[in-house]
From TrEMBL:
Residues 154-343 form the Nicotinate/nicotinamide phosphoribosyltransferase domain. It comes from the Bacteria. The keyword Magnesium does not apply. It comes from Ligilactobacillus saerimneri 30a. The keyword DNA-binding does not apply. Gene3D superfamilies: Aldolase class I, nicotinate phosphoribosyltransferase. This is Nicotinate phosphoribosyltransferase.
Amino acid sequence: MKVGDNLALLTDLYEFTMSAGFQRALDREQRGVFDIFYRQVPDNGSFVIAAGLQQALEEIQNMHFAKEDIAYLRSLNIFDEEFLTYLQNFKNTCDIWAVPEGTPIFPREPLMTIRGPLMEAQLYETFLLNILNHQTLIASKARRITAAAAGLPVMEFGARRAQGPSSALFGARAAIIGGAVATSNVLAGKKFDIPVSGTMAHSWIEAFDSEIDAFNAWADIYPDNCSLLVDTYDILNSGVPNAIKTFQRLKGEGHSSFGIRIDSGDITSLSRQARKMLDEAGFPDAKITISNSLNEEIISSLLHQGAQIDALGVGEELITSSSSPVLSGVYKLAAVERDGELIPKIKLSASRGKLTLPGLKQVYRLYHKGTNEAFADLIALKDERLPIVIHAVTADPMAIKQNKLLNNFEARPLQTEVMNGTKLLTSTPDVFAIQKFSKQQLAELPEATQRRLNPDEFPVYITPQLYALQQAVISQYTENY
Protein backbone atom coordinates (compact mmCIF):
# COMPACT_ATOMS: atom_id res chain seq x y z
CA MET A 1 0.00 0.00 0.00
CA LYS A 2 1.30 3.44 -0.92
CA VAL A 3 1.00 6.37 1.44
CA GLY A 4 -2.10 8.32 0.45
CA ASP A 5 -4.01 5.31 -0.92
CA ASN A 6 -7.74 5.21 -0.33
CA LEU A 7 -8.30 3.18 2.84
CA ALA A 8 -11.92 2.21 2.19
CA LEU A 9 -11.10 -1.54 2.24
CA LEU A 10 -8.70 -1.28 5.18
CA THR A 11 -11.16 -2.79 7.58
CA ASP A 12 -12.24 -6.10 9.02
CA LEU A 13 -14.77 -8.08 7.03
CA TYR A 14 -17.34 -7.93 9.80
CA GLU A 15 -17.58 -4.14 9.41
CA PHE A 16 -18.95 -4.73 5.89
CA THR A 17 -21.19 -7.62 6.87
CA MET A 18 -22.65 -5.61 9.77
CA SER A 19 -23.12 -2.53 7.59
CA ALA A 20 -24.93 -4.61 4.97
CA GLY A 21 -26.92 -6.24 7.75
CA PHE A 22 -27.95 -2.87 9.18
CA GLN A 23 -29.24 -1.89 5.75
CA ARG A 24 -31.45 -4.99 5.53
CA ALA A 25 -32.52 -5.40 9.16
CA LEU A 26 -32.95 -1.77 10.22
CA ASP A 27 -34.01 1.51 8.71
CA ARG A 28 -31.21 2.62 6.41
CA GLU A 29 -31.13 5.96 8.24
CA GLN A 30 -30.98 4.35 11.69
CA ARG A 31 -28.41 6.42 13.53
CA GLY A 32 -26.00 5.63 16.33
CA VAL A 33 -23.24 7.08 18.49
CA PHE A 34 -19.82 5.43 18.77
CA ASP A 35 -16.98 6.31 21.16
CA ILE A 36 -13.28 5.62 20.73
CA PHE A 37 -11.46 5.27 24.04
CA TYR A 38 -8.89 3.07 25.73
CA ARG A 39 -8.72 1.33 29.10
CA GLN A 40 -5.01 0.81 29.80
CA VAL A 41 -1.97 3.05 29.39
CA PRO A 42 1.21 1.64 27.78
CA ASP A 43 4.35 1.42 29.93
CA ASN A 44 2.25 1.61 33.11
CA GLY A 45 1.89 5.32 32.53
CA SER A 46 -0.88 7.64 33.62
CA PHE A 47 -2.08 9.02 30.27
CA VAL A 48 -1.52 9.02 26.52
CA ILE A 49 -0.95 11.90 24.10
CA ALA A 50 -3.72 12.00 21.51
CA ALA A 51 -2.43 11.90 17.93
CA GLY A 52 -3.59 10.88 14.46
CA LEU A 53 -6.75 13.00 14.31
CA GLN A 54 -5.76 14.89 11.18
CA GLN A 55 -5.04 11.76 9.15
CA ALA A 56 -8.21 10.11 10.46
CA LEU A 57 -10.37 13.03 9.32
CA GLU A 58 -8.66 13.26 5.94
CA GLU A 59 -9.23 9.55 5.36
CA ILE A 60 -12.93 9.87 6.21
CA GLN A 61 -13.23 12.87 3.90
CA ASN A 62 -11.45 10.93 1.15
CA MET A 63 -13.24 7.63 1.70
CA HIS A 64 -14.79 6.20 -1.47
CA PHE A 65 -15.14 2.86 -3.19
CA ALA A 66 -13.56 2.58 -6.61
CA LYS A 67 -14.91 0.29 -9.32
CA GLU A 68 -12.29 -2.33 -8.53
CA ASP A 69 -13.25 -2.19 -4.82
CA ILE A 70 -16.90 -2.83 -5.68
CA ALA A 71 -15.89 -5.62 -8.04
CA TYR A 72 -13.85 -7.28 -5.32
CA LEU A 73 -16.65 -7.06 -2.77
CA ARG A 74 -19.08 -8.45 -5.35
CA SER A 75 -16.73 -11.38 -5.94
CA LEU A 76 -17.09 -12.43 -2.27
CA ASN A 77 -20.72 -13.39 -3.02
CA ILE A 78 -22.00 -12.18 0.36
CA PHE A 79 -23.35 -8.69 -0.48
CA ASP A 80 -26.44 -7.80 -2.46
CA GLU A 81 -26.51 -5.19 -5.21
CA GLU A 82 -28.42 -2.68 -3.10
CA PHE A 83 -25.57 -2.58 -0.59
CA LEU A 84 -22.91 -2.40 -3.31
CA THR A 85 -24.77 0.50 -4.92
CA TYR A 86 -24.79 2.25 -1.54
CA LEU A 87 -21.02 1.84 -1.32
CA GLN A 88 -20.56 3.05 -4.88
CA ASN A 89 -22.20 6.36 -3.91
CA PHE A 90 -20.63 6.52 -0.46
CA LYS A 91 -19.82 9.80 1.26
CA ASN A 92 -19.56 10.68 4.92
CA THR A 93 -22.66 12.11 6.61
CA CYS A 94 -21.52 11.56 10.20
CA ASP A 95 -20.80 14.28 12.72
CA ILE A 96 -17.53 13.80 14.57
CA TRP A 97 -16.22 15.27 17.81
CA ALA A 98 -12.68 14.74 19.09
CA VAL A 99 -10.09 16.02 21.52
CA PRO A 100 -7.32 18.07 19.84
CA GLU A 101 -4.11 16.30 18.94
CA GLY A 102 -1.52 16.70 21.66
CA THR A 103 -4.05 16.50 24.49
CA PRO A 104 -3.17 14.22 27.42
CA ILE A 105 -6.06 11.75 27.68
CA PHE A 106 -6.85 9.32 30.48
CA PRO A 107 -8.52 5.88 30.47
CA ARG A 108 -12.21 5.66 29.53
CA GLU A 109 -12.39 9.20 28.18
CA PRO A 110 -13.85 9.45 24.65
CA LEU A 111 -10.98 10.41 22.39
CA MET A 112 -13.38 10.63 19.44
CA THR A 113 -17.16 10.38 19.09
CA ILE A 114 -18.88 9.51 15.80
CA ARG A 115 -22.61 10.16 15.33
CA GLY A 116 -24.42 9.13 12.17
CA PRO A 117 -26.10 6.27 10.29
CA LEU A 118 -25.14 2.94 11.82
CA MET A 119 -24.32 1.35 8.47
CA GLU A 120 -21.93 4.20 7.74
CA ALA A 121 -20.29 4.70 11.14
CA GLN A 122 -19.70 0.96 11.49
CA LEU A 123 -17.42 1.01 8.45
CA TYR A 124 -15.01 3.41 10.17
CA GLU A 125 -14.13 1.24 13.16
CA THR A 126 -11.01 -0.59 12.03
CA PHE A 127 -9.17 2.09 10.11
CA LEU A 128 -9.89 4.76 12.74
CA LEU A 129 -8.53 2.50 15.46
CA ASN A 130 -5.55 1.65 13.26
CA ILE A 131 -4.67 5.33 12.82
CA LEU A 132 -5.45 6.65 16.29
CA ASN A 133 -4.00 3.70 18.20
CA HIS A 134 -0.71 3.85 16.30
CA GLN A 135 -0.06 7.57 16.33
CA THR A 136 -1.25 8.02 19.91
CA LEU A 137 1.04 5.18 20.97
CA ILE A 138 4.10 6.72 19.31
CA ALA A 139 3.35 10.26 20.52
CA SER A 140 3.01 8.89 24.04
CA LYS A 141 6.30 7.01 23.82
CA ALA A 142 8.02 10.12 22.44
CA ARG A 143 6.68 12.10 25.39
CA ARG A 144 8.26 9.61 27.78
CA ILE A 145 11.57 9.59 25.93
CA THR A 146 11.81 13.37 25.70
CA ALA A 147 10.89 13.62 29.38
CA ALA A 148 13.76 11.25 30.18
CA ALA A 149 16.07 13.41 28.05
CA ALA A 150 15.41 16.31 30.45
CA GLY A 151 15.44 19.06 27.84
CA LEU A 152 18.08 17.65 25.50
CA PRO A 153 16.90 17.54 21.87
CA VAL A 154 15.68 14.15 20.70
CA MET A 155 15.75 13.26 17.00
CA GLU A 156 13.58 10.46 15.61
CA PHE A 157 15.85 7.99 13.76
CA GLY A 158 13.54 4.99 13.41
CA ALA A 159 12.42 4.65 9.78
CA ARG A 160 14.42 1.48 9.11
CA ARG A 161 12.91 -0.27 12.13
CA ALA A 162 9.29 0.83 11.67
CA GLN A 163 6.68 -1.73 10.62
CA GLY A 164 6.33 -0.46 7.09
CA PRO A 165 6.41 2.87 5.22
CA SER A 166 3.19 4.28 6.65
CA SER A 167 4.31 3.56 10.22
CA ALA A 168 7.63 5.26 9.53
CA LEU A 169 5.98 8.32 8.00
CA PHE A 170 3.16 8.92 10.47
CA GLY A 171 5.25 7.64 13.36
CA ALA A 172 7.72 10.45 12.68
CA ARG A 173 4.87 12.98 12.82
CA ALA A 174 3.61 11.48 16.08
CA ALA A 175 7.12 11.60 17.52
CA ILE A 176 7.22 15.36 16.93
CA ILE A 177 3.85 15.77 18.65
CA GLY A 178 5.32 13.88 21.60
CA GLY A 179 8.32 16.21 21.83
CA ALA A 180 11.00 15.21 19.30
CA VAL A 181 12.68 18.07 17.42
CA ALA A 182 13.63 16.46 14.10
CA THR A 183 13.51 13.26 12.06
CA SER A 184 15.89 11.39 9.80
CA ASN A 185 12.92 10.51 7.56
CA VAL A 186 13.10 12.77 4.50
CA LEU A 187 9.55 11.97 3.33
CA ALA A 188 8.19 12.94 6.75
CA GLY A 189 10.27 16.11 6.60
CA LYS A 190 8.74 17.04 3.26
CA LYS A 191 5.14 16.06 4.03
CA PHE A 192 4.91 17.55 7.52
CA ASP A 193 7.54 20.32 7.35
CA ILE A 194 9.71 18.67 9.99
CA PRO A 195 13.46 19.47 10.22
CA VAL A 196 15.52 16.55 8.93
CA SER A 197 18.83 15.58 10.48
CA GLY A 198 21.57 12.99 10.19
CA THR A 199 25.30 12.55 9.86
CA MET A 200 26.75 9.58 8.01
CA ALA A 201 26.95 5.79 8.23
CA HIS A 202 30.03 3.72 8.92
CA SER A 203 30.10 2.79 5.24
CA TRP A 204 31.23 6.34 4.41
CA ILE A 205 34.30 5.92 6.62
CA GLU A 206 35.01 2.42 5.38
CA ALA A 207 34.83 3.48 1.72
CA PHE A 208 38.01 5.59 2.08
CA ASP A 209 41.59 4.49 2.61
CA SER A 210 41.68 6.09 6.04
CA GLU A 211 39.37 7.66 8.57
CA ILE A 212 41.00 11.08 8.23
CA ASP A 213 40.52 10.95 4.45
CA ALA A 214 36.83 10.18 4.98
CA PHE A 215 36.45 13.04 7.47
CA ASN A 216 38.23 15.53 5.23
CA ALA A 217 36.17 14.54 2.21
CA TRP A 218 32.96 15.04 4.21
CA ALA A 219 34.19 18.37 5.50
CA ASP A 220 34.93 19.55 1.96
CA ILE A 221 31.34 18.76 0.91
CA TYR A 222 29.54 19.93 4.09
CA PRO A 223 31.85 22.51 5.73
CA ASP A 224 29.15 24.59 7.41
CA ASN A 225 27.58 21.79 9.44
CA CYS A 226 30.23 19.17 9.86
CA SER A 227 29.18 16.32 12.14
CA LEU A 228 31.38 13.24 12.08
CA LEU A 229 30.72 9.65 13.13
CA VAL A 230 33.70 8.74 15.33
CA ASP A 231 33.18 5.11 16.36
CA THR A 232 34.02 3.17 13.18
CA TYR A 233 37.45 2.08 14.45
CA ASP A 234 38.53 3.52 17.80
CA ILE A 235 36.67 6.47 19.28
CA LEU A 236 39.35 7.89 21.59
CA ASN A 237 42.53 6.90 19.75
CA SER A 238 41.33 7.52 16.21
CA GLY A 239 37.83 8.93 15.79
CA VAL A 240 37.92 11.98 18.05
CA PRO A 241 41.55 12.92 17.28
CA ASN A 242 40.89 12.75 13.55
CA ALA A 243 37.68 14.73 13.96
CA ILE A 244 39.64 17.42 15.83
CA LYS A 245 42.16 17.63 13.00
CA THR A 246 39.34 18.10 10.50
CA PHE A 247 37.66 20.73 12.70
CA GLN A 248 40.95 22.62 13.06
CA ARG A 249 41.27 22.84 9.29
CA LEU A 250 37.68 24.00 8.89
CA LYS A 251 38.07 26.55 11.68
CA GLY A 252 41.09 27.98 9.91
CA GLU A 253 38.91 28.37 6.82
CA GLY A 254 36.29 30.33 8.77
CA HIS A 255 33.77 27.59 9.59
CA SER A 256 32.40 27.08 13.08
CA SER A 257 29.61 24.47 13.30
CA PHE A 258 31.04 21.12 14.42
CA GLY A 259 29.89 17.92 16.06
CA ILE A 260 30.54 14.24 16.56
CA ARG A 261 28.23 11.24 16.87
CA ILE A 262 28.92 8.20 19.04
CA ASP A 263 26.95 5.09 18.09
CA SER A 264 28.49 2.36 20.26
CA GLY A 265 30.44 1.56 23.40
CA ASP A 266 30.31 2.87 26.96
CA ILE A 267 28.54 6.13 26.18
CA THR A 268 29.05 7.67 29.61
CA SER A 269 32.82 7.16 29.71
CA LEU A 270 33.41 7.79 26.02
CA SER A 271 31.32 10.98 25.89
CA ARG A 272 33.05 12.42 28.96
CA GLN A 273 36.50 11.74 27.53
CA ALA A 274 35.48 13.00 24.10
CA ARG A 275 34.12 16.19 25.67
CA LYS A 276 37.43 16.74 27.47
CA MET A 277 39.41 16.21 24.26
CA LEU A 278 37.21 18.58 22.26
CA ASP A 279 37.34 21.27 24.95
CA GLU A 280 41.13 21.07 25.28
CA ALA A 281 41.47 21.33 21.50
CA GLY A 282 39.48 24.57 21.49
CA PHE A 283 36.07 23.22 20.47
CA PRO A 284 33.84 23.66 23.54
CA ASP A 285 30.84 24.30 21.27
CA ALA A 286 31.23 21.10 19.27
CA LYS A 287 28.11 19.02 19.85
CA ILE A 288 28.14 15.40 20.98
CA THR A 289 25.22 13.36 19.64
CA ILE A 290 24.62 9.79 20.75
CA SER A 291 22.56 7.00 19.23
CA ASN A 292 22.56 3.17 19.34
CA SER A 293 19.36 1.51 20.63
CA LEU A 294 18.53 4.21 23.14
CA ASN A 295 15.39 4.08 25.23
CA GLU A 296 14.01 6.14 28.09
CA GLU A 297 15.67 4.05 30.79
CA ILE A 298 19.09 4.13 29.13
CA ILE A 299 18.82 7.88 28.54
CA SER A 300 17.85 8.53 32.15
CA SER A 301 20.71 6.35 33.36
CA LEU A 302 23.26 8.06 31.09
CA LEU A 303 22.28 11.49 32.34
CA HIS A 304 22.34 10.31 35.95
CA GLN A 305 25.88 9.01 35.38
CA GLY A 306 27.03 12.36 34.02
CA ALA A 307 27.36 11.49 30.33
CA GLN A 308 28.28 14.52 28.23
CA ILE A 309 25.51 14.66 25.65
CA ASP A 310 24.11 17.49 23.55
CA ALA A 311 21.55 15.59 21.47
CA LEU A 312 20.11 12.10 21.08
CA GLY A 313 19.03 10.07 18.06
CA VAL A 314 16.42 7.50 19.07
CA GLY A 315 15.28 4.85 16.61
CA GLU A 316 13.53 1.54 17.10
CA GLU A 317 12.60 2.03 20.75
CA LEU A 318 10.63 5.14 19.78
CA ILE A 319 9.15 4.30 16.37
CA THR A 320 7.87 0.90 17.57
CA SER A 321 7.28 1.77 21.24
CA SER A 322 9.03 -1.55 21.73
CA SER A 323 8.70 -1.71 25.52
CA SER A 324 4.89 -1.53 25.23
CA PRO A 325 3.96 -1.79 21.55
CA VAL A 326 0.17 -1.81 21.67
CA LEU A 327 -2.46 0.78 22.54
CA SER A 328 -5.74 -1.11 22.83
CA GLY A 329 -8.18 1.60 21.87
CA VAL A 330 -11.74 0.37 21.28
CA TYR A 331 -14.77 1.51 19.26
CA LYS A 332 -18.00 1.02 21.17
CA LEU A 333 -21.64 1.81 20.47
CA ALA A 334 -22.92 4.23 23.14
CA ALA A 335 -26.41 5.01 21.82
CA VAL A 336 -28.86 4.62 18.95
CA GLU A 337 -31.38 7.18 17.76
CA ARG A 338 -35.00 6.38 16.94
CA ASP A 339 -37.56 9.01 16.02
CA GLY A 340 -35.30 11.73 17.38
CA GLU A 341 -34.83 9.98 20.72
CA LEU A 342 -31.38 8.97 21.94
CA ILE A 343 -31.48 5.45 23.39
CA PRO A 344 -28.39 4.63 25.51
CA LYS A 345 -26.49 1.41 24.90
CA ILE A 346 -23.91 -0.37 27.01
CA LYS A 347 -21.37 -3.19 26.85
CA LEU A 348 -21.63 -5.54 29.83
CA SER A 349 -19.06 -8.16 30.70
CA ALA A 350 -18.09 -10.62 33.39
CA SER A 351 -15.18 -8.24 33.94
CA ARG A 352 -16.33 -4.90 35.38
CA GLY A 353 -13.26 -3.32 33.81
CA LYS A 354 -14.93 -3.63 30.40
CA LEU A 355 -18.10 -1.81 31.40
CA THR A 356 -18.79 1.09 29.01
CA LEU A 357 -20.41 4.49 29.48
CA PRO A 358 -23.70 4.96 27.60
CA GLY A 359 -25.03 8.04 25.83
CA LEU A 360 -23.61 11.04 23.98
CA LYS A 361 -20.93 12.56 26.21
CA GLN A 362 -18.45 15.38 26.73
CA VAL A 363 -15.15 15.31 28.64
CA TYR A 364 -14.17 18.23 30.85
CA ARG A 365 -10.82 19.04 32.43
CA LEU A 366 -11.34 20.53 35.86
CA TYR A 367 -9.11 23.33 37.15
CA HIS A 368 -8.82 24.99 40.50
CA LYS A 369 -10.78 28.19 39.98
CA GLY A 370 -8.67 31.09 38.72
CA THR A 371 -5.68 28.89 37.82
CA ASN A 372 -4.33 26.64 35.08
CA GLU A 373 -3.83 23.82 37.58
CA ALA A 374 -5.86 20.78 36.53
CA PHE A 375 -6.84 18.37 39.29
CA ALA A 376 -9.34 15.96 37.66
CA ASP A 377 -11.34 15.12 34.54
CA LEU A 378 -15.10 14.72 34.39
CA ILE A 379 -17.19 12.81 31.85
CA ALA A 380 -20.73 14.13 31.50
CA LEU A 381 -23.69 13.73 29.21
CA LYS A 382 -23.32 16.18 26.36
CA ASP A 383 -26.52 18.10 27.02
CA GLU A 384 -26.28 18.37 30.81
CA ARG A 385 -25.36 21.62 32.53
CA LEU A 386 -22.74 21.17 35.21
CA PRO A 387 -23.81 22.38 38.65
CA ILE A 388 -21.35 24.29 40.82
CA VAL A 389 -21.19 21.35 43.24
CA ILE A 390 -21.06 17.79 41.90
CA HIS A 391 -21.31 14.55 43.86
CA ALA A 392 -19.20 12.74 41.29
CA VAL A 393 -18.51 9.03 40.86
CA THR A 394 -15.18 7.61 39.75
CA ALA A 395 -15.13 6.49 36.10
CA ASP A 396 -13.10 3.41 36.98
CA PRO A 397 -15.57 0.60 37.77
CA MET A 398 -12.79 -1.27 39.59
CA ALA A 399 -12.03 1.55 42.04
CA ILE A 400 -12.66 0.98 45.74
CA LYS A 401 -13.46 4.60 46.59
CA GLN A 402 -16.35 5.54 44.36
CA ASN A 403 -17.57 9.03 45.34
CA LYS A 404 -16.03 12.51 45.36
CA LEU A 405 -17.46 15.96 46.09
CA LEU A 406 -16.31 18.45 43.44
CA ASN A 407 -16.65 22.20 43.98
CA ASN A 408 -14.82 25.47 43.41
CA PHE A 409 -13.70 24.38 39.95
CA GLU A 410 -13.61 25.62 36.39
CA ALA A 411 -14.63 23.04 33.75
CA ARG A 412 -13.11 23.25 30.28
CA PRO A 413 -14.50 20.94 27.56
CA LEU A 414 -11.97 18.79 25.71
CA GLN A 415 -14.00 17.54 22.74
CA THR A 416 -14.87 19.89 19.88
CA GLU A 417 -16.77 19.21 16.68
CA VAL A 418 -14.22 18.46 13.98
CA MET A 419 -16.30 17.16 11.07
CA ASN A 420 -19.83 17.68 9.78
CA GLY A 421 -20.52 15.35 6.89
CA THR A 422 -17.85 15.97 4.26
CA LYS A 423 -16.93 19.34 5.78
CA LEU A 424 -13.80 19.53 7.92
CA LEU A 425 -14.21 22.01 10.76
CA THR A 426 -10.52 22.13 11.64
CA SER A 427 -7.58 23.61 9.77
CA THR A 428 -4.52 21.54 8.92
CA PRO A 429 -2.33 22.06 11.99
CA ASP A 430 1.40 22.65 12.01
CA VAL A 431 2.96 19.71 13.82
CA PHE A 432 5.12 21.95 16.00
CA ALA A 433 2.06 24.01 16.93
CA ILE A 434 0.52 20.74 18.14
CA GLN A 435 3.69 19.98 20.09
CA LYS A 436 3.56 23.42 21.72
CA PHE A 437 -0.10 22.92 22.60
CA SER A 438 0.71 19.51 24.08
CA LYS A 439 3.47 20.94 26.27
CA GLN A 440 1.07 23.60 27.52
CA GLN A 441 -1.50 20.94 28.35
CA LEU A 442 1.12 18.85 30.15
CA ALA A 443 2.23 21.87 32.17
CA GLU A 444 -1.32 22.08 33.55
CA LEU A 445 -1.22 18.54 34.95
CA PRO A 446 0.27 17.70 38.36
CA GLU A 447 3.95 16.76 38.14
CA ALA A 448 3.27 13.53 40.01
CA THR A 449 0.87 12.47 37.25
CA GLN A 450 3.61 12.94 34.65
CA ARG A 451 6.20 10.73 36.34
CA ARG A 452 7.46 7.95 34.07
CA LEU A 453 7.76 5.54 36.99
CA ASN A 454 4.90 5.00 39.43
CA PRO A 455 2.89 8.04 38.34
CA ASP A 456 0.21 9.37 40.62
CA GLU A 457 -3.30 8.60 39.41
CA PHE A 458 -5.10 11.54 37.86
CA PRO A 459 -8.75 11.08 38.84
CA VAL A 460 -11.44 10.76 36.19
CA TYR A 461 -15.03 11.08 37.37
CA ILE A 462 -18.49 10.81 35.86
CA THR A 463 -21.46 12.98 36.76
CA PRO A 464 -24.32 11.63 38.88
CA GLN A 465 -26.60 11.92 35.85
CA LEU A 466 -24.31 9.79 33.69
CA TYR A 467 -23.82 7.30 36.51
CA ALA A 468 -27.58 7.01 37.01
CA LEU A 469 -28.05 6.41 33.30
CA GLN A 470 -25.36 3.73 33.30
CA GLN A 471 -26.93 1.93 36.25
CA ALA A 472 -30.41 2.15 34.70
CA VAL A 473 -29.19 0.57 31.48
CA ILE A 474 -27.35 -2.12 33.42
CA SER A 475 -30.54 -2.92 35.32
CA GLN A 476 -32.55 -2.99 32.12
CA TYR A 477 -30.34 -5.63 30.55
CA THR A 478 -29.63 -7.69 33.65
CA GLU A 479 -33.36 -7.92 34.38
CA ASN A 480 -34.07 -9.13 30.86
CA TYR A 481 -31.39 -11.80 30.69
